[in-house]
Specification:
The protein is of the alpha+beta class and 253 residues long. The chain folds into two domains: 1-46; 49-252, Autotransporter beta-domain (Lipocalin), CATH 2.40.128.130. 17% of the residues lie in helices and 57% in strands. The chain has one helix spanning 3-45, and strands spanning 59-64, 68-75, 80-87, 93-101, 104-114, 120-129, 143-163, 169-188, 193-204, 208-220, 225-236, 240-252. The longest helix has 43 residues, at 3-45.
């Protein structure tokens, strides 16, 4: 075979190789577009409910629970988030953070509460929400999130029997270390409305106890805006009872 013929054969092989590569690239590009569309569709379908306690999101909100309140969260990335809440006179506030894992989310919070009895407390807790959905458990369409963890409470309560002088209240310091256990549930009614409920309790040193329950409804105004109304009751062996009706508006970024 002459050198010219060998050169022509090499050129033919190069052209064939480039042609095959071009057709392969076109085929891959054609497959990539519907794949991206499917992934986007799955993300939309899997979009978490605005009330989902495992949702990591950046948002800002305002509400009213007898006082005006401001709340918000900042998503550091897809797994970590900082969050906070404060009322108009800063008598109550909360700061916290979350870390999302495959089977649940770990939260830590410290918050200040003011009570009608005149007492106040600062509470520290670390715990987790575990969505039963990841185990395929959604009874009658309910999304259930058991939660449990450890807490520490440091505060003071108004003494009913001791006074320094007539009309002068005496505050008694209290502290407790304990555990808490509860559950939160969501029942989407349609793509706009969601029913919510929750209950739980805690037990700590000195036989201190606290129980709570609540229920409400959430409305998704748009994909980024939501409103919720929630009523809760609680009873503490140290700080007495408390009833709260709150309404909140939130915008997701």
């Amino acid at each position: 075979m002459s050198s010219n013929q060998k050169l022509k054969n090499i050129e033919a092989r190069i052209v064939a190789s480039f042609s095959l590569l071009a057709f392969s690239s076109i085929g891959l590009a054609a497959e990539r577009e519907p794949l991206a569309e499917r992934i986007l569709e799955e993300e939309v379908l899997d979009e978490k409910n605005p009330e989902d306690p495992t949702k990591v999101v950046t948002r800002l909100g305002a509400g009213y629970n007898g006082e005006f309140t401001v709340n918000g969260s900042f998503g550091i990335d897809k797994a970590r988030m900082l969050s906070g809440f404060i009322n108009s006179d800063a008598s109550e506030w909360r700061l916290g953070g979350s870390w999302l894992f495959e089977k649940g989310i770990v939260n830590f919070n410290f918050k200040k509460n003011q009570y009608d009895s005149g007492g106040s407390s600062i509470n520290y807790n670390v715990g987790t929400f575990i969505p039963l959905k990841v185990f395929g458990i959604e009874p009658c369409g309910w999304q259930i999130f058991p939660n449990f963890g450890l807490n520490y409470t440091d505060g003071d309560i108004l003494s009913a029997s001791e006074t320094q002088s007539p009309g002068t209240p005496v505050m008694i310091p209290v502290d407790s270390k304990g555990v808490y256990l509860g559950a939160f549930g969501l029942r989407p009614i349609d793509d706009k409305w969601t029913f919510m409920c929750g209950t739980g309790g805690s037990y700590g040193s000195g036989d201190t106890t606290n129980i709570y329950a609540g229920t409400g409804v959430s409305f998704r105004v748009t994909t980024k805006q939501s409103l919720n109304l929630f009523y809760s009751v609680s009873e503490s062996s140290d700080f007495g009872g408390r009833n709260t009706l709150s309404v909140n508006y939130r915008y997701e970024f």
